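Entry
Fold in token form

___
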Amino acid sequence: MSATETVYKDRVKLPQTFDAEKMLAEFNALRLNDFEYYNVIPLRSPAHLVDNTIPFPPPAEDYADGSWCDWLNTTELESSPYLKSIVEEFQKHTTVTLVRLLRLAPKSIVQEHQDVTLGLEVEKSVIRLTIPILNKEHIEFYLNNTLVDMKPGECWYMRLTDPHKVINNGTTERVNLTIDMIPNEWVKNLVAKHQ
């Protein structure tokens, strides 16, 4: 590591905050089905999955940074103006790839794991920002065996290449908005400034 290379903390609360009630209202308006354990609602996906008239992209040497395909908003995001405005806020500064609503059922656990390409230290990758929407008592996110105390509407960068897990001991599902993006200089400076 060079003397000028930035060392990033494993978790950074960013200055952006969003209206959790508006996000929750749009989430509820999607009239989603019941599910068991874990559920993903794509809001922005590879273009060929959103529009089947777009051909499947050719094979790529590296899929980690999202450059292997084009990305499009899904109908779910297009029908959710506030969620869409959040995504567009980041699109002003960098390329946004995958965007999803992640749901974890009550009394469920996401076992400890590592996402090997989701860290600022990874040379060719994306990072994931997490914005809790429905995150009540008894819902715990652990990163490197310590609790990350995220509140609804807050925006967090976490180094997900490190071990992390989620425990939902509550009676309601947990819902997070996750936004994957290319870590350009704007993103790196944002995280460095607020760590």
In short: The chain is about 20% helix and 35% strand. The chain has one domain: 18-194. The first strand starts at residue 11 and ends at 17. The two ends are 19 Å apart (CA to CA).
